[in-house]
Amino acid sequence: MDFDLDKHDINHIHFIGIGGISMSAIAETLLTFGYRVSGSDMNASHMTEKLSQKGATIYIGHSEKNIDHCDLVVYTAAVKKDNPELIKSKLLNIPTISRSQMLGLLMKKFKTSIAVSGTHGKTTTTSMISLILEYSNFHPTIMVGGELDAIGGNVKIGERNYFVTEACEYVGSFLNFFPNFGIILNIDEDHLDYFKDMNDIIETFEKFTHLIPKDGVLIGFYDDPHVQRVLSKANCKVITYGSHSNCDYRVENIQFSKEGYPSFDTFYQNKFLGSFILSVPGIHNVYNALAAIASTHTLGIEIDNIIKHIASFKGTHRRFDLLGTLEENIKIIDDYAHHPTEVKATLKAASNIPHNNIWCIFQPHTYTRTKALLNDFSNSFFDADKIIISDIYAAREKDPGTIHSKDLVEKIRDTNKDVLYLNDFEKISSYIREHAKPNDIIITMGAGDIYTVGKMLLNIKG
Questions:
Q1: pLDDT by residue (tens digit) across 201-217?
Q2: CATH topology (fold) of 110-311
Q3: SS3 of 284, please?
Q4: Residues noted as catalytic
């Protein structure tokens, strides 16, 4: 993209869809950098209220009247070509760029831009890296795809030396970035409404590696054969992590406490580096943590600091988030998992916690993903004792009429699991209240609004 915030006379930047998790973070950063910021969204939220309090002009609803003497317009992938603000911008010849292009331009303003990519685990790993850097007085600027209590939300403005953010592969977004420090956590089959097939996904990650300059660093999960292939195509320094004996950073002796939290030993170039204890559950978080350890150790942080600060990480909102406990020790947990690999990982993490039954209340996310990965989904509930499937959350899609949650229920039933379809959150809440037993674990799961069920059970408003 032949555009530069510093070289062009840019003062006022307008965001279409400013309330989104990433858009609001970018807008807040630009406000701090001294830009005038305005933006619109269909609904008011705590994100738009926060931006308003910091000096942004916020419009609720989209209208061509909102485009007033701005120098640049930023839009999200959800904005359609018939959006009145987008149309007005083009009529006035105002430059328009996507959210990912704007994030790429921000990266140019930092000495070290750290981009965390992968199909799963981006938010958790980005948060781990960010907190280790922050607590080690590196003063990073941080953007995460969730809300992290330790930084008071989804963004923290630091100094200009270190910038940490997630790098999403969907619609090739991360190909607009300018990282000099990249991380690939894993590569899995997903977003098949955009990618043609697995090979297309892998090739997109290969293009991402080529964005990192020769004097940059790429860290990758060597246990994943797709990541191995991508790492072999990199033109920069490559550092590997995983369980293989030839990894630069290797994990051994993984154990779990009675609360389900893992501990493990880490070796660097076959020399013992340290023993780690996590405050988040699951084997998947061991490898997320190992990526954070490899990254921050490579950046020069002392291992004692990494051990201390990674132990203090207690997760982000909607990632194995304990919402509360009902009578008789019935735990209500919410998790963002919406891919078969993530469903398996979350349920496996729950299985390490003492329990009676594990309930999985799953909301499929998008028709495309549900249909394309139907068989994989049906085999991902092994560690659940009771399964309830709600209606598919459409997100950006329209119902094609070719897939329904009942299709997933039938597939799951073929695996001899106890599964039920309920199409209403009130019905789900009532069913759980009637049938849950002491010491059960109830997990609401999905990227949509299924967390509402947990709030109903706990009588949490809002």
A1: 999 999 999 999 999 99
A2: UDP-N-acetylmuramoyl-L-alanine:D-glutamate ligase (3.40.1190)
A3: helix
A4: 122-123, 166
